[in-house]
Design goal:
single chain, alpha+beta, Jelly Rolls, Arc Repressor Mutant, subunit A, five-stranded antiparallel β-sheet, three-stranded antiparallel β-sheet, globular, RmlC-like_jellyroll, DNA-binding
Length: 311
């Protein structure tokens, strides 16, 4: 099951599957690459949705700085620095004190390297399967990391120019980037230590449960039960990984879905509130206003080509 959360006005939400893994929309069919520049101000509340995927993710900060959470660990990504996130790691970025941040984001699926089995086994699998390598912080002051960061910028520029054969140049750069990372890994200097402990798995289970059942009447007890933990442990895990309570996270997701419906459909605000799991319109409007700085009616009325909203 897929939930589409893309908006026409340039606001970004994340497409996710039932297990909450992100559905990556690659730039070219048949080439598992995704390259974009972005700003946190284009995300609801300047915070991305918690997600994970099979792709390797590279982030480089162009301007400003960003809080970046990986399996509950908070990195502060400084200007010109970045991070490589290994596959299937739970992660998201958010603003620091609501300040904007511009960045490059490049996703590459390991399948890009899999045509040559020897290359894949020798250079990819040791890192992909190392549970201690959740991420690599890319420090622009480190020569090896600076090469990777410069390569990310070059890839982005190649895509922007779009000249014939640019895909081949980008793939060639990725091979050089991975050679650099593999050398560091072999030398024993890859990343911050970590492994997917039981809490990480439980958090994924509970987030997946919310994504699948947000339209229903959910309680702290039902969310905790989906992860097989008590309510106290549930709250501890959400605070550790998402810096929110379970109910706050549930409401944030419901509000994101409702904003999508306000943009994409002509359903009444009352109907949208109900479909998103809110039993009382006044409570929905209060939370929406707090989250977006305007009422649902005002939010819909600001959309290009839309008349003032109904009730």
């Amino acid at each position: 099951m897929v939930r589409t959360m893309l908006n026409n006005d340039g606001k970004i939400n994340v497409d996710v599957m039932q297990d909450a893994s992100e559905i990556v929309r690659y730039d070219e069919t048949g080439i598992p690459l995704y390259i974009q520049t972005g700003e946190l101000s284009r995300y609801p509340d300047r915070k991305a949705l918690c997600h994970w995927h099979d792709d390797l993710e590279f982030i480089k900060i162009i301007d400003g700085e960003m809080n970046y959470y990986i399996n509950g660990k908070n990195l502060v990504l400084k200007e010109h620095d970045g991070v490589m996130v290994n596959t299937r790691q739970m992660h998201y970025g958010s603003s620091i004190d609501q300040r904007d941040c511009s960045f490059l984001c490049i996703l590459v699926h390991p399948a890009l390297f899999s045509s040559n089995k020897l290359i894949y086994r020798k250079y990819l699998l040791p890192i992909l399967e190392d549970r201690e390598t959740e991420y690599v912080y890319l420090d622009s002051g480190c020569p090896g990391h600076a090469f990777i960061l410069d390569s990310l910028t070059e890839m982005t520029e190649l895509k922007r120019q779009g000249e014939y054969g640019y895909e081949l140049e980008i793939i060639g750069l990725f091979y050089r980037v991975w050679k650099n990372l593999a050398r560091q890994f072999q030398a024993g200097n890859p990343a911050a230590p970590g492994s997917e402990d039981m809490d990480t798995k439980v958090q994924k289970d509970m987030v997946s449960f919310i994504y699948q059942h947000y339209t229903e009447r959910l309680t702290l007890s039902s969310i905790a039960a989906s992860g097989g933990v008590c309510r106290s442990k549930c709250c501890q895990i959400f605070k550790k990984y998402l810096c929110q309570s379970p109910i706050d996270f549930l409401n944030s997701y419901r509000l994101e879905v409702s904003s999508h419906l306000l943009k994409k459909t002509d359903k009444s605000i009352t109907q949208i509130a109900t479909e998103c799991g809110f039993n009382h319109l006044s409570y929905y409007s209060e939370l929406f206003t707090r989250h977006y700085g305007c009422t649902p009616r005002q939010f819909r009325g600001q959309l290009p080509g839309r008349l003032p909203a109904d009730s």
